[in-house]
Design goal:
single chain, 144 residues, 6-stranded antiparallel sheet
Length: 144
Amino acid sequence: MTTNEVQTPDSGSAAMVMFLPQSPFVQQLGIELIDIDEGVARLRLPYRDELSTVGQMLHGGVIAGCIDIGIMTAAWAGSEVPQQLRGVTVSMSVQFLEPVYAESIDIVGTRLHGGRSLKTCRADIVGTESGRLVATGTGTYKVG
C-alpha cells in the first residue's frame, strides 16, 4: 500500500479502531478505546487538570463531548461499512447526575436500535475508580 492509499475497513468496529487515533478532538481529550464489540464500545478518558472547570471537577463540556464520542462509537460498533465512510450526530441529550473530581472516566456506549443508517445509542459516563454513574446521554447517529 502506498502512502496515498486509504485502507477501507471491513467493519464499523474496524473503522473506529482506525478513526479514533486520527481524530484531533479525540486525541486532544486523550480518549482511549478499551473495547469494541457488536453494538457496544468502552472508552476511557484519563483525568488531567486541563480538563477541569473549578478545582478538580471535570468540565461538563468534556463530559458532553465524551457522550457524543460514545454514541458515535456504539453506532459504528459491529455495523456494516456504508458506501461512503462518514457519519454525524443527528441529535443528542445529556443528563448530568453528579460531579466527578480528579478521576478518570469510562465511556460506555451501547446501540439501542439500529436502522439502515440511523442508529439510536446511549452513552454512560462512569467514574473509573469509584464506579459511580456521573452522566448519561442518548442520541441518534447517522452512518454513511
